[in-house]
């Protein structure tokens, strides 16, 4: 009969989309992956993957097995964890991938507490917008803002944020305070460059009932850069609320059009690879994040 390692290799293959990708992630030879998948198919008397010269895809039976195999390995992990000494100190590497603003404003202020609790865990922080790179780059957990694309990886919602409008007191004194979207058209709107055009749709309704799409007066590909432009009086910007807390407290920025913002939430999710050996690292970190991060 097949072994648990066969299920582990099957899941890695399904999520990597290739035998080679699974072998690289598990640090084994591609031939071992191929033999393991063949063993599963023989034992179960079915075909788990459609194979072409360029890629592999799951069959219907493969899809069914993927959902059940992941649960099985998670259950095995839970059983082992239950009987393992829970006082064993967590150690090893934890690679966290998150957008730069999230790292600066939500992770950096709390990670000293995490390292105090888990001094033998070595943290590595990266920033990459492509979820698919988790396997290639061996990222343990990635933080993503907004709706997730289907990737075959596990995801857990850990919070939500909103966007709002801000400007410097000096700019508003010079240009006036906008009271509606018509006024906003007469102001300098600071926007993102073409790489992220969706962020230039601001949550305030036009006369036609749609979100206002700005024509940027000035653009940047970084929210932190746009924030500095706003602080220095170049215009109004729309950013996630958690990125401007310090500037609001210091008075460098003030909110505008608060009563005109369309109610909305942007989900914050943790995306991670489902291979069960990393679950403890992921679970401990996510529990910490949910407890300490101030969304």
Q: Total helix count? A: 12
Query: Count of DSSP E strands?
Result: 14
Low-confidence stretches: none
Fraction of residues in H or I helices: 40-55%
Largest sheet: 5 strands, mixed
The total number of structural domains is 3
The secondary-structure class comes to alpha/beta
End-to-end span in angstroms?
48 Å
Under the CATH scheme, which architecture of the largest domain would be assigned? 3-Layer(aba) Sandwich
Shape: elongated
Q: Mind telling me the C-alpha Rg?
A: 24 Å
Order of the strands making up the biggest sheet: 4-3-5-14-6
- Mean pLDDT, to the nearest integer, reads 87
Question: Overview of this structure, please?
Answer:
The protein is of the alpha/beta class. It folds into 3 domains: about 5-85, Orthogonal Bundle (Arc Repressor Mutant, subunit A); about 90-160 and about 265-290, Periplasmic binding protein-like II (D-Maltodextrin-Binding Protein, domain 2, 3-Layer(aba) Sandwich), CATH 3.40.190; about 165-265, 3-Layer(aba) Sandwich (D-Maltodextrin-Binding Protein, domain 2). It is built from 12 helices and 14 strands. It has helices spanning about 5-15, 20-25, 30-45, 60-85, 100-105, 110-115, 135, 170-175, 180-185, 225-230, 245-250, 280-290; strands at about 50, 55-60, 90-95, 120-125, 140-145, 155-160, 165, 190, 200-205, 210-215, 220, 235-240, 255, 265-270. The strands form 4 sheets. It has a 5-stranded mixed sheet, covered by helices on one side. A 5-stranded mixed sheet has the order 11-8-12-7-13. Strand 1 and strand 2 (about 55-60) form a beta hairpin. Helix 1 (about 5-15) crosses helix 3, helix 1 crosses helix 4 (about 60-85) and helix 2 crosses helix 3 (about 30-45). The protein is elongated. The N and C termini lie far apart (about 50 Å).
